[in-house]
Design brief:
The protein is mostly beta strands and about 350 residues long. The chain is globular, with a radius of gyration of 21 Å.
Length: about 350
């Protein structure tokens, strides 16, 4: 693929957003500067002194809270792996025209905030409540729809004890690009769920309709297909790039001998139960050794001892979760280029002139 394959509009998106360099997989918690960023519209300027969070709709009492009000409540910190639903979009053919991610749109952060359930319970959700809508301050137009960015959760998901309203990332106040002063964090769900620059939470007695909910973030085979609404992350394994890179192509260069391959795997449906590695383009597979167990909230480490012989090799890794979901070998195309969790393919040249 050459640079001419990309449109000017895709390049504009790519320069505004950035993925995590895959060597960042070496960190249990992604440094803030390496954490992936996707901004749908503009990064809004928000004053901490005048900002307010409004909670309304099907509740017994509406709430209007300042940032100090929220920060004064009992807080919790959770380590959460977050992946953009469009991760892998640029690997599809033909390529849907949107943010052209390869595999770098994933990171793990330590998010500090207050449990969403505590505020909803304080407001008093009515028994007829069906969904909870989250409205951000970022505004724009998409396919003719002028909108504030909005997403909704079923009430039972919103009341999960691990769902946070976060005001810190890795121990500091949220940077502007990550949603200052407050954002939603829903462990296990794709990144589009985690609304940034949160300004309003509305409880509804009927299903919510919104562009980001009902049009874009869906797995649809064609334009007239209503598709499947995205929610939880499908299993994926990624490899820390072995050896050293060739500057022009990023092809990996390693010396012959025994090399320990390492990586991370995650799924929003169930804990990772297995990772397999292939050094021959998927012809044969062997199980990797898994690190300490982790749930759906964060990624799990894996390692594999590979005897590297001279020549070019295509390395693959694939994850299986405890619910039986397995990464596919090939992408499954869809209109919006979402949820492409096909296995990563890493080209490695094994050369005796490469220093270990």
């Amino acid at each position: 693929m050459t640079i001419s394959d990309f449109t000017l509009y895709e390049l504009q998106k790519a320069t505004r957003n950035h993925g995590m360099p895959l060597e960042g997989l070496a960190y249990d918690v992604t440094p803030i500067g390496m954490h992936y960023v996707l901004v749908h519209y503009d990064v809004p300027y928000v004053s901490a002194t005048t900002w307010r969070l409004q909670i309304d709709g099907r509740v017994a009492r509406s709430l209007v809270l300042s940032l100090d009000d929220i920060r004064s409540r009992p807080r919790a910190t959770k380590r959460v792996t977050m992946e953009c639903a469009g991760n892998g979009r640029a690997r599809l053919t033909p390529r849907p025209r949107s943010q052209p991610w390869l595999e770098e749109a994933v990171s793990t952060g330590e998010w500090t905030g207050i449990p969403l359930a505590s505020l909803l319970q304080e407001a008093g959700i009515h028994d007829d409540a069906v969904e909870v809508v989250f409205t951000g301050l970022d505004r724009g137009e998409q396919q003719g729809h002028q909108q504030l960015y909005q997403r909704a959760l079923p009430v039972e998901e919103a009341l999960r004890p691990d769902v946070l309203l976060a005001f810190e990332l890795n121990g500091i106040a949220l940077p502007p690009q990550h949603g200052f002063p407050l954002r939603l964090i829903v462990p296990g769900w794709y990144g589009m769920t985690n609304v940034k620059w949160l300004s309003r939470i509305t409880v509804l007695d009927k299903p919510f309709w919104g562009y980001q909910q009902n049009v874009f973030y869906r797995i649809a085979a064609h334009e007239d297909d209503p598709g499947i609404q995205l929610s939880r992350m499908y299993p994926r394994s990624l490899m820390i790039p072995p050896g050293i890179p060739a500057f022009e192509t990023r092809e990996r260069l390693v010396p012959p001998g025994t090399i320990t391959l390492r990586g991370r795997a995650w799924s929003g449906w169930a804990p990772i139960s297995r990772v397999e590695v292939s050094a021959d383009s998927g012809a044969t597979w062997a199980e990797a050794e898994l690190g300490a167990p982790s749930g759906i909230e964060t990624w799990r480490t894996w390692s594999f001892r590979w005897t590297a012989t001279e020549g070019r090799h295509e390395l693959l890794s694939r994850a299986t979760d405890a619910a039986g979901n397995v990464q596919p070998l090939e992408p499954v195309w869809n209109v919006h280029g979402v949820a492409n969790n096909a296995v990563q393919r890493v080209i490695v040249a094994v050369r005796p002139d490469i220093e270990g």
